[in-house]
Design brief:
Number of helices: 10
Bound molecules: adenosine-5-diphosphoribose
Strand order of the largest sheet: 3-2-1-7-8-9
Radius of gyration: 19 Å
Strand content: 15-25%
Largest sheet: 6 strands, parallel
Order of helices and strands: HEHHHHEHEEEHEHEHEEH
CATH superfamily of the largest domain: TPP-binding domain
CATH architecture of the largest domain: 3-Layer(aba) Sandwich
CATH class of the largest domain: Alpha Beta
Helix content: 25-40%
Shape: elongated
Length: 249
């Protein structure tokens, strides 16, 4: 990370009228939450197909028994890190309009982010598929640990985590907001995501096609880099605070 690159990105964000951030699991690894596809990522230790919505519907007991451990890893008690705080500072200073995140850990809001678009739902709640009652995901997981699989609502309905599962439609309002931000922004800061999963993976291209300046901050190469004016192969907890500081200078 060199100062000139940081300054250039800071100037681009300062000049932008409608900047948006797109984040993934890489912004939370410094908080102790593993990512999915980086070194030692969750998909090296768990089978993605165990968490497809088809399996939830066909084998809810087996799904919930597997979900207990994954839930603990992606929604554990974690605190925001310097990357979350830098994005919250950029939002508070008016340099970022919103953070569109694929993460379900709630750490952008915990850092003070107010306009957070949660594309993949949230990890702290579960909802009854019969009566729509919302319960704390931890309470449902506790019941599974105590032998109640699948956990059921008081009405007898099946509980489902509020995290969007593979094969499941994204929350309509969040998807619409994310697409609107991508189409209407003049700068997009992409941080800590491998851009593997659609539709999030296509948002940077959508932004670039609308004329937005792209910036990518990621430990590993991503497909957005070749459209990006600013590319940092580095740690989000170093680059984002440096950019936030430079913008405020
Ligand atoms: N600084 C910069 N980059 C980092 C850091 C860090 N501190 N830690 C990890 N990374 C990078 C990894 O190298 C990886 O390229 O962040 C990226 C995270 O990519 P993924 O693990 O694929 O996570 P994400 O892109 O958010 O996955 C999208 O896939 O499994 C589904 O629903 C799940 O929301 C998730 C979606």
């Amino acid at each position: 990370m060199n100062d000139a690159d940081v300054t250039a990105l800071a100037e681009a964000l300062a000049a932008a009228d409608r900047a948006v951030a797109l984040t993934g699991a890489g912004v939370s690894t410094a908080s102790g939450i593993p990512d999915f596809r980086g070194d030692g990522g969750l998909w090296e230790r768990y089978d993605e197909s165990d968490f497809h919505v088809r399996r939830f519907l066909a084998e809810p007991s087996a799904f919930w028994r597997d979900w207990v451990d994954l839930h603990a890893e992606i929604s554990g008690n974690a605190a925001p890190n310097a990357a979350h705080e830098a994005l919250a500072d950029l939002e508070a200073a008016g340099h970022v309009d919103a953070v569109v995140t694929q993460n379900v850990d709630g750490l952008h809001a915990a850092a003070g982010g107010e306009r957070v678009v949660r594309l993949h739902g949230r990890g702290d709640r579960a909802t009854c598929r019969r009566c729509d009652a919302s319960v704390a995901a931890e309470a449902a997981v506790e019941r599974v640990r105590d032998g109640e699989a699948p956990p059921r609502c008081d009405c007898g309905g099946l509980l489902k985590p509020d995290t969007v599962l593979f094969g499941e439609r994204l929350p309509e309002a969040a998807l619409s907001a994310a697409e609107s931000h991508a189409a209407g922004c003049d700068a997009m800061l992409v941080a800590g995501t491998s851009l593997t999963v659609e539709p999030a993976a296509s948002l940077p291209r959508r932004a670039a096609e609308g004329g937005a300046t792209l910036a990518v901050v990621n430990a590993e190469p991503t497909r957005a880099a070749d459209r990006a004016a600013h590319v940092f192969r580095g740690d989000v907890t170093e680059v984002l605070p440096a950019v936030a500081d430079a913008v405020s200078d």
